[in-house]
Design goal:
Blueprint lengths: L1 E7 L8 H12 L4 E7 H4 L4 H6 L4 E7 L7 H14 L8 E7 L9 H14 L2 E8 L2 H6 L11 H15 L9 E3 L5 H18 L13
Amino acid sequence: MINLCFINGSPKKEKSNSSYLIKELSNLLNSTTQTKEYFINNIMKDDSLIEEIILCNKIVFVSPLYADCFPSAMLDFMSRFEDILNKKNTPKIDMYCIVNCGFLEGTQNRIAIDIMKNYCKKLGFNWRFGIGIGGGEFMGSSKDMPINSRLKKPVYNAFLTMKEDIENISKSHIDNLLISPKIPKFLFKFAANISWKSQAKSNNLNPKELYKQIY
C-alpha cells in the first residue's frame, strides 16, 4: 500500500485550480494508493498534521505560480516544515510537485519547479520530478471537460507519467514536464478578456475602469 499526500499551497483551498488538479490525478491512481489532501492553512494551525504527512511514502506539493515562485503562505509553510524535519530522523520520501499558472505556456513554471527541487534536497527527500501546467484558469474553469479530452490531453499524459512513477518503485531519471493545454493562444486571450469583463461587471465596474492607474 502506498500512502500519498498532496499538499495544496493555494489560499483558495477547495475552490482552487490546484485542488481540481489534485482530484484529477487522484482519480487516475489505482486502489492500492491511499491519498489525502492537506491545505497549508490547516497545517499551519495544527502540527499533528505534519506528523501525519511524514508517515507518507510520497508527497506531491501542488501550488499556483505567484511571480515565478509560490504564495507567501506556502513559503511560510515550507520554512516551518523544514524546521520541524530538522529535529526528526525522517525517512527518504519521494517528492513531486505540480505548479499551475495563469499564463498559457507551461514553461513559465520552470523556476518555481527548480525552487521546489532545491527545497527537496534541503529536506533530504528523494526528488522525482515536477509538472508545470499552463492555462491554469482554463483548466479550473472547464471542470466538466474530461481530463483526457483533446484540449487537456497534454495534462492527462503528464499525469499518467506521474501516476506510473508513484505506483512503481522507479529510480530512473524523469525530466520535469512543462506543458500547456491544446488551446489556440488567440482563443485563450479572447476567453480571458471575457472573464475579466464579467468579473468587472459583477463588481459594478466597466471595462474602461480596469485600466485606471493610481498616478
